[in-house]
Amino acid sequence: MTSPTTSPRRARTARPKLDAIAAEAVELAREALLEVTEPGQVGEHLRVEASGERLATHVFDCTMPGYRGWSWVVVLARASRAKAATVAETALLPGEDAILAPEWEPWSERLKPSDIGADDLLPYREQDARLEQGYEATGDEDADRVALWELGLGRPRVLSPEGRSEAAERWLEGDFGPRQTSGRGRRGTVAANCTSCGFFTQLSGSLRREFGVCTNEWSPADGRVVHLNFGCGAHSETGQQGDDREIPRSSGVIVDELDVEVEKAPAAQDPAETAPTPVAEVPEADSPQDDSAQDRTAVQDRAAEAPEADSPEDETPGADA
Known about the structure:
321 residues, alpha+beta, 3-stranded antiparallel beta sheet, 7 helices, 11 strands, 20% helix
């Protein structure tokens, strides 16, 4: 037969009794708030609560702009066998519907890379997982000269594998990451990627296997780090398969209707310079050809003097009347 189990009894905590003298000292609590606040910031008395033995907390409405749901509190205390209460502390506390600021975060977690400008100065981080120790001088003059000057290793710290991995992931997910290639010209695809573009310049080190820099000023990725499989319409070989190629300036007829060509009029010449020089007439000997020419001239003169024949159009009705 099993014995019944009995749960231990919970100790009852008696609620503190509200001290009557401290509860009635409402004006004392208001005067204490008026000494630490500006005029018009303390509202009406809301309630009084027992905070402990011979301790009473008076709650007043807060009327400051921007502090909706907040309350002023004044804690009054009464000493043993004392007939008056005294002010213990004052405070401004938020309520359930109060507007509160978000939880405080250190600047290193709150600040984002997009918030940093070109002229902003970041603090030095001695322990940075993205960097590792660079080349240290050995004291050998020849070895240090080769490492620092010829190989360019004169930096205190260099990029660590973790730093390279973070940069690669960030560039892959960025706007200039890989794009799908398609010869059909579907939306979101390109005909060729940066691998075959003449404006693509690879990075140095291990990142050169996947990334480089675009040097085409007509590309949206100019001066940006791009992936080998990125592509755009400013590819150096754009239009090789198309029929509509750019017409060279030196061939074809170009009609330019925006420019007006003004021709200057020739300068007026002096009449004295353009007048023909008189030549003296010398009588030539008569020839048979000259006689026939004179006969033709005489016949033409007689024909001009003869009256013209009347035509039907000239005859009008009633002309003989």
